[in-house]
Write a structure and sequence with these properties.
3 domains, binds flavin-adenine dinucleotide, Butyryl-Coa Dehydrogenase, subunit A, domain 1, Butyryl-CoA Dehydrogenase, subunit A, domain 3, Butyryl-CoA Dehydrogenase, subunit A, domain 2
Amino acid sequence: MDFALTEEQRLIQQTARQFADEVIAPRARELDATATAPTEFFPQLAELGFMGIIIPEAYGGSGLSNLEQVLIMEELHRACASTGVTVSVHNSLVAGPIVKFGTEEQKRRYLPRMARAELIGAYCLSEPDYGSDAAGLRCQARFEGDHWVLDGTKAWITNGEIADLFIVFATEDPARRTRGISAFLVERDSPGLEVAKKEDKLGIRASCTNMVHLENVRVPADNLLGERGRGFTIAMDTLDGGRIGIATQAVGIAQACLDRSVKYARERKQFGTEIANFQAIQWKLADMATEIEAARLLTYQAAVLRDEGKPMGAKASMAKLFASETANRAAREAVQIHGGWGYVAEFDVERHYRDAKITEIYEGTSEIQRIVISRALLR
Ligand SMILES: Cc1cc2nc3c(=O)[nH]c(=O)nc-3n(C[C@H](O)[C@H](O)[C@H](O)COP(=O)(O)OP(=O)(O)OC[C@H]3O[C@@H](n4cnc5c(N)ncnc54)[C@H](O)[C@@H]3O)c2cc1C
């Protein structure tokens, strides 16, 4: 859909591309190898306006649209999916719901610092025993006079280690499922909040993923995000946007695989000629390119619908489902095109192959996306 982008949108995309190529990409392999969170980019990302992409200008953000967020994030993910998801969670899963559901006071307190990267966000929905079935979550919320008390354990929390502000979903009564859940803004230094075990992952190794324990954590009453008992709606609305974010990550990874494969196929010679001259390789490239275009269009479509305030849950699921499967196919073919060199770190497709897998798992597995899509069809 590049054909439909405005001049300004192309400029935004170009700025992100240049930063991703010149600053992020050269560091990606090292950050992955050492599982180092990409905090070194935060000052420059904030300077570029990428730590507050959809935060309105009135709160110090860039005031951009969801489509523009996709354009920026694809470039970051193409260079380094770990950096991409770190920035994406901060923007889409934390700043996003504060912009949409926060009180004026909450917006003033948190958004400007988020846009300046002084405050990094994390989103705490999943629990060790409740992932796909998020409505079953057990983290407990009790209202005691003028404050809330939270108790429980959250699992798989992206940015856990580096976050200053956690959106925590907790329930007053698990038996009430979706209607018992509320959302809370919990600050890092709240007594009783402990960021625990860091997971040792297959891919996106430079993105930190932690267990978060909450024990008698007192949260001021005015840190309730949205209405009491409406937390699940906030969680799901946020994930609609987040799924566009993961579709974008998948498109970025897939594009990186294609770019590296085209370059390698032109350089690598076997049987006295470049492997690009073999039809077997050409067809792989053609299929990769075609699927990436389709995935990108689905992602843009979901973003534009969200910008227009139209229903887009099933479209976001389609984009995530198709883009994540595209990324995994593209990564597999990229490794194949690189032969033995694809299997080692030097040409980076090995990293893309490991990074691609997570896109089929988080923010709703592919099975869950198929459930969302089929429910919309059969409703
Ligand atoms: C690296 C990483 C980062 C993450 N970041 C965050 C984060 O920042 N915040 C957060 O809240 N969560 C985060 N998550 C959690 C992630 O969203 C969950 O892992 C995901 O939703 C799946 O839940 P689960 O792991 O409990 O798997 P399960 O729900 O146990 O699923 C296991 C398998 O069963 C299948 N399954 C489950 N239910 C059904 C069904 N009804 N029909 C068919 N198949 C089904 C699933 O598709 C899957 O294949 C992260 C996870 C990872 C790995």
